[in-house]
């Protein structure tokens, strides 16, 4: 097991009808900016619940934060924060709204030239404007971690930021919000959370017995509840387990003391950039090829995953490892998520070369848990995913 | 799944040679009181490592905090804190030293009549003097939670305290400390952590799928590493997994959203009070009887535990549940921990009646996850444990 540090100060408020509790979490004298996305919260009742909980506060609103939170839009919100002397931010949404709010938390207290520097200069945010979240779409885990990804259309960039100052002070997780999420989004959320676990787990054995079992626990739970959540998102128990699994998948706990991969995310991001494919679906496209290409390096963990998560008992290590890849691909497909690039675009020729070139240009010469995944290898993996 | 809140702000610093890192965690201008127990840290090198890490600080020491931290001793430490204007506490020890330090953290800022009121009046500590810990004995989980148990010899009382102000700011977990722990203490630590999980898990199914699997993960890991740690406590990987499992067993995570029992601890505490039996061993005495007596109420979870943790595949629910009890008892015995009261004292007659009477006198009329474990039932359970 590797040496590690772990600290996660976010307060989770989990359960039925808990949105009203935000009233007790925000300082009485706060001037609050409530941030949200395209407005679905006005249809499903969440907006009304939040407004009721905030009735005794001085509150302004900023709606319209898009999926892949866009810098230009966020800069408009930042102007409101400064002009109106906002002191507390409340994100009401999924990963994009929460990530955008994290950027604003950092930018509000940033004293450099332009807030974009936070992303390009990889400035670690030690202290941000305090903020809380009301989660409306389980998937990214952003409600209990300190990272964010921000997009800038103008320069076609998608960059990450973070730091200990960017943990939400609180996050409200009411599984009842899942009832109104469209099936496609639910499938994406399940796939996203499942992928987060795989990136932190599917590397090589390092004797982190408890972290492995926790990762397997999340995978098993997602597999168990996925068909139920898709079939009936109003069924509370499955919704609750789905929601808590998504949070635990990327709140830092399971990655402590172990190597991590994240190469699938790096490749997947490019498929979103090139073709606008939903983030989760890009991961489902890349995983099978990535695991087949890196079979020797990952087969021990793949076999362990086959045995413990998929109950594969037959065959030797190679057989089990291969079965694990097939089971994983079939799981994504069971969520009606296609796992080949050609199922999303007819125009896929040259994609592998383009992504490989981009990685080379950025100096990304060795991704993955062994830092040995070169742009040449990336090209082969993406080609296998056609 | 029940509604819950979860917040745990303690920073964990885990791994080889991490004691030196405490230098970066304590404010430069702090006046530190270093607290420890009977002095074993002076023999195993931990004392020297801590002193070296604190070389640039103004540090006083207070040694001699006993197992079951004693109020009278702690009051002497409190006098030092006040007389010397201490601003930061550093516990170097196991659960007793850390619990004692939590009491001091609270008492140092307490403005009531006498600090004992914190315990008798069940005063929740919202803010304490900041403190960190260097864990020398994995077992209680006190290094990552906000609870403490304090003993007062004068009045034969053993009372609990806690509150959000009593999380350690940081805890250093260097698994190398395990190398010098005597076998008896290692067996106690394993049993204590195992018991913590059982108290939070062995109740009834409530659809908390992930919490159940996390609990089972800790149990499986403790079972896997126990013989290795006992055989060779210098073997790092097993020591690290043992240490992290003990912390995760009682840092709040697995109890969120589920019913908990804790009746075994209540009965066990009395066996310590009456006969001075090590805390962990009292739990091993009570568990089998408790589970047999409450078989109908607990058999579904007992059977799940049998299947998932002990790989019991034969028989019906009752058969599996019964096998689980036998496996658990055999596990404790494999650690050379006796599971009958008569193996600890010849003078056990009347114990059950005495404990039952104590519970009645205290008004403890309904313990356990169903609040239906009466003093009459307690009497029967303890008698079964003779």
Provide a descriptive summary of the structure in words.
The structure is a homodimer of 386-residue chains. Chain A has helices at 46-53, 71-83, 95-108, 116-120, 183-201, 209-231, 236-249, 263-275, 279-293, 295-310, 317-334, 351-362, 375-384; strands at residues 4-14, 31-35, 58-62, 88-93, 131-135, 147-152, 157-162, 170-173. Helices cover 47% and strands 12% of the residues of chain A. In chain A, strand 2 (31-35), helix 1 (46-53) and strand 3 (58-62) form a beta-alpha-beta unit. Chain A has two domains: 11-176, 3-Layer(aba) Sandwich (Rossmann fold); 182-384, Up-down Bundle (Dehydroquinate synthase-like, alpha domain), CATH 1.20.1090.10. Chain A is α/β, with parallel strands linked by helices and 386 residues long. Strand 1 of chain A pairs antiparallel with strand 1 (4-14) of chain B, so a sheet runs across the interface. Chains A, B: This is NADH-dependent alcohol dehydrogenase. Chains A, B: GO terms for molecular function: alcohol dehydrogenase (NADP+) activity; butanol dehydrogenase (NAD+) activity; metal ion binding; methylglyoxal reductase (NADPH) (acetol producing) activity. Chains A, B: Residues 9-175 form the Alcohol dehydrogenase iron-type/glycerol dehydrogenase GldA domain. Chains A, B: Belongs to the iron-containing alcohol dehydrogenase family.
What's the gist of this structure?
The structure is a homodimer of 386-residue chains. By secondary structure, chain A is of the alpha/beta class. In chain A, 47% of the residues lie in helices and 12% in strands.
